[in-house]
Design a protein that fits this description.
Length: 565
């Protein structure tokens, strides 16, 4: 009884306010209705990429709005409210997925995968924390979660509001729905367009279908790839038949973060990067080294570097997280493990970007891994990068390459100074001045601020180019200074930088180079038709990154002994 009286009292007070302020009440109701309609129609017409986010996309008639109107008009109040709330919540979820698609397409060149990609959001928060500080990362996470939750609630309330309005004007709403359906079907049949896009659209249901297909394809791919990963052309090759032509050589595989084709061909970045490659080629030639270079098409784009690393070294196309988990949980032969399997090389990894446990080391066949905390660095971080590439290379020289040993060395090195956001960027110092890295304090303090570079696409391009120049220069000068007659260096980019830098529609190609003093090393790859020097020609061969392992093993004398899936 009290509850009923309380409800009546609230209704009485509400009616009294409406009576006292009729114009204000009417304005609020109309404004709320308009905002609800704009929110719902905007969500129904929202594309899933920034490129398509243009005003003409919102000058269309969504089929889902017509169908939803008819359904709400046909239902009594309670089912109508339930359906409206469910439809609104679903529309909110679709909007969140479209926004995630936009972000993933901008950074990784592909849409968001609801099965595989939730873990990457945690990586994104870690990246923000490393680049802009823990507080910024926390607020960004809170804002993202809060914004998504608010969007779901507002979308549900908006559809409920519109449903109640339709019910209050059922006859006029029915005529309007019939007219809209007629116009939609006519425009669809005749292919009518406005501002270059079709008037009749079903983009929301199309986006849902695309997400559903993506889920189904992912689940199918998981089973197919697990079988594919068990088959290996060199899986059963005896140790003595693996890379016999490189016996006695120190073989170093080096990945340069985000070193993509755009760095060499984009008019903003190409001049500086080109000079660094040309001067590196000349300096190495003076030290007795020659180089050959080509292109590889990476399995990833804009980020997820580990997918590029595993693709290059395993000979499998590892383009998503599920494939990565599958292959690293198995025993597929990696290029680095091939050296370990022979028993004739010490195998090490230098991973300055690794700051937590890294169980993949066993799968890669690395006896020892030096992570961010194992190389004695006491200098500043450079945004995401824990240390300058020059320091990482000098530490590798001090800890492994420069030591006397009974066996040659095979190393995998990841250089991180060209990781976004490309600010601040280290500068080269004298090799004898490096010490514990404290010499970089002043360089970091006087460098560009990450927030300033991230906000400006042109500066992002410029600073990205400078970071690649620095990484390439660090590596080539290290080889010039410390390389021996038996040093063989293979270096490449793991992926292109994000679309804001590489450009919309950019390829996934990255440069790859093989450098050595011994002429036999390069003679073995003559039939690859790669370009002389460190800069591949525009028309140099382009291979899938997954093809490199087998080509390399074959070139240096390995005998195939396949295992079947």
């Amino acid at each position: 009884m009290r509850t009923r009286l309380s409800r009546l009292s609230r209704l009485t007070r509400r009616r009294a306010r409406r009576t006292r302020h009729p114009r204000l009440t009417l304005a609020v109701r109309r404004t709320t209705t308009v905002l609800a309609a704009v929110l719902v129609l905007g969500a129904l017409l929202l594309p899933n990429s920034f490129v398509a986010l243009e005003p003409n996309r919102f000058a269309r008639i969504p089929a889902e709005a017509v169908i939803g109107t008819v359904l709400l008009l046909c239902l009594p109040r309670v089912p109508r409210l339930a359906l409206a709330a469910l439809f609104g919540t679903g529309l909110g979820v679709l909007t969140v997925l479209n926004l995630l698609d936009m972000g993933f397409t901008e950074y990784l060149g592909r849409g968001f995968n609801v099965v595989l990609d939730w873990g990457l959001l945690d990586d994104a928060q870690s990246y923000v924390a490393d680049s802009m500080g823990g507080a910024a990362a926390t607020w960004a996470a809170v804002g993202a979660v809060g914004g998504a939750t608010l969007l779901l609630v507002l979308m549900a309330l908006a559809v409920v509001r519109l449903g109640e309005l339709l019910a209050a004007h059922r006859e006029r709403a029915a005529r309007g729905a019939l007219l809209a359906a007629t116009v939609w079907m006519t425009c669809a049949a005749l292919g009518v367009q406005t501002f270059g896009v079709p008037v009749a659209t079903r983009s929301a249901s199309g986006a849902l279908e695309a997400q559903a297909h993506r889920v189904v394809d992912t689940l199918r791919d998981e089973a197919a790839f697990a079988k594919e990963a068990k088959a290996d052309r060199f899986g059963a090759t005896p140790a003595e038949q693996l890379v016999p032509d490189l016996r006695g050589k120190d073989v170093i595989f080096t990945f340069i973060e985000s070193y993509g084709r755009s760095a060499i061909e984009d008019p903003v970045m190409a001049p500086g990067v080109g000079r660094a490659l040309d001067s590196g080629t000349e300096a190495l030639a003076g030290a007795g080294f020659r180089a050959r270079s080509g292109w590889l098409t990476s399995a990833t784009y804009g980020g997820s570097s580990w997918l590029g690393h595993s693709t290059f070294l395993s000979g499998l196309w590892v383009d998503n997280q599920q494939r990565y988990r599958t292959v690293t949980a198995g025993d597929h032969l990696t290029l680095t493990k091939a050296f370990a399997k022979t028993g004739d090389w010490d195998t090490v990894g230098v991973m300055p970007g690794v700051q937590k446990a890294w169980p993949e080391a066993e799968w890669y066949g690395l006896d020892k891994v030096y992570d961010a905390f194992d190389v004695g660095y006491e200098g500043p971080k450079f945004s995401w990068s824990t240390m300058p590439d020059q320091y990482a290379l000098e530490a590798f020289q001090r800890l492994e390459h420069g030591r006397e040993r009974d066996r040659p060395l095979m190393a995998e090195i990841i250089l991180t100074s060209s990781h976004q956001p490309w600010a601040p960027i280290p500068r080269m110092v004298g090799w004898d001045e490096i010490g514990d890295g404290s010499v970089f304090d002043g360089i970091e303090a006087s460098g560009e601020k990450a927030a300033d570079v991230i906000a400006d696409p042109t500066r992002s391009k410029e600073e990205y180019g400078k970071s690649v120049e620095y990484s390439v220069t660090s590596l080539t000068r290290w080889l010039e200074r410390y390389g021996t007659d038996d040093t063989v260096l293979v270096f490449l980019g793991d992926h292109q930088p994000l679309a804001r830098v590489s450009g919309n529609g950019a390829s996934r190609d990255v440069p790859v180079s093989v450098v050595a003093k011994d002429p036999k090393v390069l003679d073995a790859i003559d039939d690859w038709n790669w370009t002389e020097g460190l800069k591949p020609a525009e028309d140099a061969p382009v291979w899938r990154m997954s093809s490199f392992r087998d080509r390399f093993l074959t070139a240096y004398g390995s005998t195939p002994h396949p295992t079947k899936g």
